[in-house]
Design brief:
2 copies of one chain form a homodimer. The first copy, chain A, has about 350 residues and is α/β, with parallel strands linked by helices. In chain A, helix 2 crosses helix 4, helix 3 crosses helix 4 and helix 6 runs parallel beside helix 13. Chain A is elongated, with a radius of gyration of 26 Å. Chains A and B meet through helix 1, helix 5, helix 6, strand 2 and helix 7 of A and helix 1, helix 5, helix 6, strand 2 and helix 7 of B. Strand 2 of chain A pairs antiparallel with strand 2 of chain B, so a sheet runs across the interface. Chain A binds a DNA duplex (30 and 30 nucleotides) through helix 3 and helix 5.
DNA sequence: GTGTATGATGCAAACGTTTTCATCACTGGG
DNA sequence: CCCAGTGATGAAAACGTTTGCATCATACAC
């Protein structure tokens, strides 16, 4: 029986051709081949062409692993996101991809499922893979993890939540201020009894910031803190829907609900529609994220537009610049806007 | 001025500690350290513990690049998808991620943006990175590309479209049959003048298969081929919407429209709603994909449920099995179901 | 006591590049 | 004619692991 490894290399595949054989055939040294590939300007035009001809002829593909070992860079960045199915993360991820791909970098993606432990082990794995840099989601994590990154001198950018520590550069927007924008909008419309549906604040600093903004707004309003107005749930349509169900079943239902993400907002909206409740006449709903779909709903969802795409783009740019220059970038706070559509209206009473 | 590279390694970061220093400190050879890490059962319990202690003490992280070079496997798989923002691809991607992560593999993701050329260059890049295997989307691509994969003996799995070539194993569902399911549903409801909104069939074999099923059904119906009933557009809500706009503006608008993906279906639905057109009373709409959101729309979207998650899961499993065993797996066709909801109803006349 | 497994370990040769330093051939100024 | 400068190239030492083979105890059957 043949060894699996041999088989996995494929039957038709002879041993992969190496730079050494290219060098031999082109009658130059491996150094010259390497230079022809990486720094063509350092090689005489004629030599370069000869080398390239041999390379073409053999379909030579450089071994990136050996290259990484020798040059001590992998041309790969790591990206850790909580989930990929919520399209708001897909959006920033796509931007990061584009940026990286355009600069010849590959992206190693890890999905943490909102679990700190899993995130830590993913980070360790990426560290082991020697990624040149890292893009992380949120700022809250074990200090030991940050130490590990620092100790390894690994450039990293935090996203989705601003960092106040210059040693931990971030590209993000202010979740607290953004959520306040939403609350102010509802308050301006005359709402006083406002519900909140958001993510789990213990595992998600974005959800926490939004909740805090909600609570601050309610306090400012002089409304007593009422736990029954608040629902922390997972990021699923159904969770938003059942939360809304509970809110509406209450003896004194809120006249407006702040959903701290569009997924849950859409779930909440569907609950209203299932009950035949008019939105925004009988209850107002505001979301957060402004997913592309939100304006194709009916009624169109009022929401807070977050710069997911731009954030991914800038984060990738800054990370690559850091890698190239060795200089850590400064943090950047991106603007956020209220997109007023058809699910918010004046309070009735 | 210091060299960037030096700086990028970080200030606090001394040179990374190596297996050699661990070995020295634990008074064993590097071979033993390597074995303690990779095949603990081949090392005496006592020795293993001593080695581990030293490793812990120094926060030693193995250099995966050197490991990959020496062992000739990277424990990384490549995944190429056309886009990540359409949540149907996010769904299969997430499943692949989970599977890979659970087996200690990392996933290098490439986004081709439905562009064959870009896909080819991404594949080459992944080849260079020496991924242990590849998961690709669709079956239609340059023969030279397949040859390259074969030549390098790289295991790969095709997804989203079944392959008939046993040398190119696939995990997919039958797009033609699935689209026929949708058409049959409309036809059963009495519709005869049926529109089609789908992706660009020249760059997307899934869209092509669905279009062919549409055309076959229309032919079966004896309806003359009418180009004006067919719209090939990009995967955006707005594209579905404007296509629907055109369709409805026609002198003889269709009584039903088959949207070959939910994104465009949702756009189409929004156009109907903007016009105050009753769905399904005045026009029926059927989607394809059955995105999670589709049942939270109002009216809820009738659609074809595709096993995106399962497909990703099975594809990853098969790929990893192939890598481990060296034996290419057989192809697998997954079932698809019609999910009948509220956007399809009997034809009026 | 001999011979043979068995288990734990070490030695050292890969793995396929990059990169430093040295060499060599020119060029042109003095 | 000499010398410094420049540009193209090569030799060889890394880079940090894995792994085949050899070695050396120790155990056990006979």
């Amino acid at each position: 029986m043949r060894r699996p490894a041999a088989r996995a290399q494929g039957d038709a595949a002879g041993r992969r051709i190496t730079i050494r054989e290219i060098a031999h055939e082109a009658k130059v040294s491996t150094a010259t081949v390497s230079r022809a590939l990486n720094t063509p300007e350092k090689v005489a035009e004629e030599t370069r062409r000869a080398v390239m001809a041999v390379i073409e002829r053999h379909h030579f593909v450089m071994d990136g692993v050996a290259m990484s070992l020798a040059s001590r860079r992998t041309r790969t960045i790591g990206l850790i996101i909580p989930t990929i199915t919520n399209s708001i993360y897909a959006s920033s991820t796509q931007a990061i991809q584009q940026c990286a791909q355009a600069s010849g970098y590959s992206v190693l993606v890890g999905v943490s499922e909102f679990d700190g432990g899993q995130e830590a082990s993913l980070i360790r794995r990426l560290l082991e893979r020697r990624v040149d840099g890292l893009i992380l989601t949120g700022t809250t994590r074990d200090a030991a993890l940050y130490e590990t990154l620092q100790r390894n001198g690994l450039p990293f950018i935090l996203t989705w939540q601003p960092s106040d520590d210059p040693a931990r550069p971030s590209v993000a927007f202010d979740n607290f201020a953004a959520a306040r924008l939403a609350m102010d909008h509802l308050i301006d419309l005359g709402h006083r009894r406002i519900g909140l549906i958001c993510g789990r604040s213990e595992a998600n600093d974005r959800a926490l910031a939004r909740r805090l903004a909600y609570e601050a707004a309610m306090r400012r309003l002089g409304v007593p803190q009422s736990e029954w107005l608040i629902y922390e749930r997972d990021f699923e349509f159904i969770e938003g829907r059942t939360a809304m169900h509970r809110l509406l079943d209450h003896r004194l239902p809120p006249s407006a609900v702040f959903c701290a993400n569009d997924i849950q907002a859409i779930g909440a909206l569907s609950e209203c529609q299932a009950r035949g409740l008019k939105v925004p006449d009988e209850v107002s709903l505001i979301g957060f994220d402004d997913l592309p779909i939100s304006q194709y709903l009916s009624p169109q969802l009022t929401s807070i537009r977050v710069p997911a795409n731009q954030m991914g783009h800038r984060a990738a740019e800054k990370l690559l610049a850091w890698i190239a220059s060795g200089e850590p970038p400064s943090s950047e706070v991106l603007p956020v806007t209220l997109v007023q559509r058809d699910t918010t209206g004046p309070a009735r009473n």
